[in-house]
Amino acid sequence: MSYVVLSAVFVGVAVAVWVVAAVTDTGFARRWWLPSMLAAVVLVILTAVFDNLMIAVGLMTYAPHRVWGVSIGAAPIEDFAYPIAAVILLPALWSLFSRRSSDDA
Questions:
Q1: Could you give the CA distance from residue 13 to residue 38 in angstroms, rounded to a whole number?
Q2: Distance, CA of 88 to chain centre
Q3: Quick count: other Cβ atoms within 10 Å of Cβ 73?
Q4: Is the dihedral of CA 90, 46, 48, 52 positive or negative?
Q5: What is the pLDDT of residues 50-90, one digit of tens each?
Q6: Nearest CA to 24 among 93, 87, 90?
């Protein structure tokens, strides 16, 4: 399995949960878009810096036939899917679980 496919699975699951949160909570997207975008910018910058450092010192290597070929520095573009998936997924889970726990109380 290539890293692109694996990344697509993670992002796809995150988007599916986001859609459920947006459908069940009408104000979800309006409340979370700015904090999510700010977090995405910070996480992408941190990923670019630290992934490149880890690759440079040899902590991580990638099989050339499994990466797409596009990279930011030495970090393949696929590495950036995970922080983006987290930025999509975590607010959605927060919204879904916080509403559920307040309904139980």
A1: 21
A2: 6
A3: 12
A4: negative
A5: 999 999 999 999 998 889 889 999 999 999 999 999 999 99
A6: 93
- Integer angstrom CA distances of residue 103 from 17, 31, 32, 58, 100: 19, 20, 21, 49, 5
Strands (E), the chain: 71-72, 75-76
Summarize pLDDT for 35-59 with one digit per residue, the tens: 999 999 999 999 999 999 999 999 9
- Helix (H/G/I), strand (E/B), else coil: 38: helix
Q: How far apart are CA 97 and CA 84, in angstroms?
A: 20
